[in-house]
Design a protein that fits this description.
Number of helices: 5
Number of domains: 1
Largest sheet: 5 strands, antiparallel
CATH topology: Beta-Lactamase
CATH class: Alpha Beta
Strand content: 25-35%
Length: 167
């Protein structure tokens, strides 16, 4: 359950000015679907019809609490195309054996535990055959009861050409 002090910090989260327009658009949409002050939106507030141009770059990740695990609920078509596989329905720790040691795990965990959005831009291994590229990500909490995050909504935008992979 998210504390009131955490809810107050939601208003203080802001994206960097350099954030991609699509990242900003998803963040603005997420803010617009909050059902009430101090309450997080849930999946029922998120309507894909409202943002069709953003859907190819969106992931929805289910949060399991005991034990803490994350499962791909939905993986956008651009992500499937870029990574070369569709992992919908699979557990992240099964797809990525070292997942709990990654920055992605930390971002998912922090968003799920605190109810605060997250943002990062970093290099990422796109596909074992393709090498690393730049990825910009936005992490947004969804909570069916308005307080306990049960889905992390993520947008990933890839840019640049993969660098050669070092063996």
């Amino acid at each position: 359950m998210i504390e009131q002090s955490t809810m107050a910090t939601l208003a203080s989260f802001s994206l960097p000015e350099s954030a991609a327009p699509k990242i900003k658009a998803l963040h603005d949409y997420w803010q617009s679907i909050h059902p009430a002050a101090g309450v997080l939106p849930g999946r029922r507030h998120f309507d894909p019809i409202d943002i069709p141009e953003l859907l190819p770059s969106i992931w929805m990740i289910d949060v399991q609490r005991a034990p803490r695990r994350f499962r791909f609920r939905l993986v956008g078509t651009e992500i499937v195309k870029f990574t070369g596989r569709d992992v919908t329905g699979r557990w992240l720790d099964e797809v990525y054996p070292d997942y709990e040691k990654t920055e992605a795990y930390s971002m998912h965990r922090d968003c799920a535990e605190t109810g605060r959005p997250g943002y990062r831009k970093s290099g990422v291994l796109s596909n074992p055959r393709r090498g690393r590229v730049e990825a910009e990500r936005l992490y947004l909490p969804l909570a069916e009861d308005g307080h306990t995050v049960n889905i992390v909504l993520v947008m990933t935008l890839y840019s640049g050409e993969p660098s050669p992979r070092r063996l």
